[in-house]
Amino acid sequence: MATVNEKLEAFGLKRVLNYLDKNPQENVPKVISWLRKLDKNDLYKNTYDMIDGFMKDPDNNWNRLICSLYTDIDDGVRRKMFANFLINSAILGSVKKNKMVEKYNCNIPWAILMDPTSACNLHCTGCWAAEYGNKLNLTFDELDNVIKQGKELGTYMYIYSGGEPLVRKDDIIKLCEKHSDCEFLAFTNATLIDEKFADEMLRVKNFVPAISIEGHEEETDFRRGKGTFQKVIKAMNLLKSKKLPFGASLCYTRKNAETIGSSEYYDFLIDLGCKFAWFFTYIPVGVDAVPELMATAEQRKYMYDQVRKFRSEKPLFTMDFWNDGEYVNGCIAGGRQYLHINANGDIEPCAFIHYADSNIREKTLLQTYQSPLFMQYRKNQPFNHNQLRPCPMLDNPGRLAQMVKKSGAHSTDLIHPENVDDLTDKCVDAAKNWKVVADEIWDKSEGRPRAEMKEKLAAEEKAKIAEAAAKRNA
Question: Which of 63, 105, 168, 399 has its CA 20 to 30 A from that of 284?
C-alpha cells in the first residue's frame, strides 16, 4: 500500500507529464530541473545531465528520439507508458525497492521476466524453448500473484518471454488491465500480432512488444523458418499504423553480427518504426544448442564499437545486455535488477541460467530472494572487476558452476537436465578469447574510473546494509 507521501509524489509527477505534453521541446529541461530536486539521493544525476545536454540541440539524435514519441505514439499510450515506467517503476518503485533491500538484506529486482507458457508456434535453431512444446504453463492466478507480490516489494516492470508469450495473449491483456500501474513488455516473434490484438494494446495502453528479428529475410528465416521475416514486417507496419510503441530484440551470432550491427540496419529498424533495440549475444544453452553460432571475440568487439558509435548518431534507444556491463556495475541477474520465472514456476537468476532452488508454487518471492542461490549471486556480484566481462556463465564460467554447487541448485530443464560443468565447458573458449579483447578495451577505456567508482559505491552500500542488519539483530 502506497504511503501518503508516495501518493502525493505520484500525483505531482503525473501533473508534470501533462505539462510536458504542451511543449516537450521547451518543457523537458524544466521537468528535469524539478526531478533533480525530487531525487534527493542523486540516483539519476547522470541521466539528468545527459538529457539537459541533448535537449539544447534540436538535431541531436536523443532529442529527435524524444520528440518522435510525441509525433509517432498515441497520446494515451505515451502518457500511460511515461507514468508507469518513469513514475511507478523508475522513481517511486526504486525508492520502495531500495528500502526493502536494506530491510531484508537481499537483492530485489527492478524487473521480473516470466514465461506464461513453453508453447511456441516456431521452432528456431538453437532455441531451448523449442524442446518443450505445449507442456508447461503458468496459470492466470499464478502470474497475477507474482505481480501482486512484486509490487509490494517495489517491482512495477514485468516482461514476458517463452515459448511465445502471445500464445497467451488474452491473459496478458487481462493482466495489463488488472495491473494498470505496471508496464509490461514481451519478447515475441510477432507472428501472432493481428489487428484485434493491436486494438487491445491501444485499449490497455501499458503493453510494449520487443520483436525478435535476426537481420534481413535471409538471416531471420535461417533461424526462425521460411516466411517469418515477412510476418515480422507486417506486424511492425500494423503497430506503426496504430501509433503503438515497439522495438526490436536482436540476437547476434556468428552468422549475422555484421548485418545487425551495421549503420544500414539501424536505419532499417528506425524506418520500420522501432523506438528501441535490445541486443543479445547467442548463448549455447540446452542440449540442442549450436556452439558454432556463438559470435567470435572480434564480432563481439564489433558490436561493442557499433552500439556506442550509433548511440551518438541514431534516434534509437539501444542496450547490449553483455557489452553494457560497465554501465550497471556488471551482471544484473540474480534479482539484482532482474530474474526469470520459467513456465514451470522455477525462479531462475537469469533467462540463460537454467538452475534454481525455488519455485513460485512453494516459496514467496521474498523467500526466493533470500534463498541460497540468490544470496550466492548477491555475495559474488560483480563477477569480474572488468565489467566488460560481466556474465558468470559466458565470461567467467567457473563462477556459475561454483554458485550452483554451493547453493545446491538443480537444473530446471525437465527433458534433458544439463550438468552445470557441461554447460560452462561450452563457454570456456569464448571466455578465453573475449578476455584478451575485453581486457585491452578496459585498460584503455575512459569509462574505467567511472566503473571502478560504481564498484566502490556498491561495496559501500553493501557495508551499510550489513551494518543496518547487524543493528536490527543486536
Answer: 168
Comparing 27-41, 100-114, 325-339, 410-424, the range with the smallest average pLDDT is: 27-41
Q: Is the predicted pLDDT of residue 371 greater than 80, yes or no?
A: yes
Where does residue 277 rank: exposed (0-12), middle (13-18), buried (19+ CB within 10 A)? buried
Residue whose C-alpha is closest to residue 315's, from 67, 18, 121: 67
Chain-centroid distance of CA 377 in Å reads 18
The residues, ordered by sequence, that sit 6+ positions from 342 with a Cβ below 8 Å of its Cβ are 114, 115, 118, 136, 348, 354, 412
Q: What counts of helices (H) and strands (E) characterise the chain?
A: 20, 11
pLDDT in tens, 355-365: 999 999 999 99
Pairing of strands 355-356, 410-411: antiparallel
Whether residue 173 is predicted with pLDDT greater than 70 in this model: the reply is yes
Instruction: Report how far residue 78's alpha carbon sits from residue 69's, in angstroms, rounded to the nearest whole number.
Output: 7
Does this model's pTM top 0.85? My answer is yes
In sequence order, the β-bridge partners of residue 112 are 158, 339
H or E element that contains 318:
strand 317-320
Per the structure block, which three cell numbers stand in for 244? Answer: 503503438
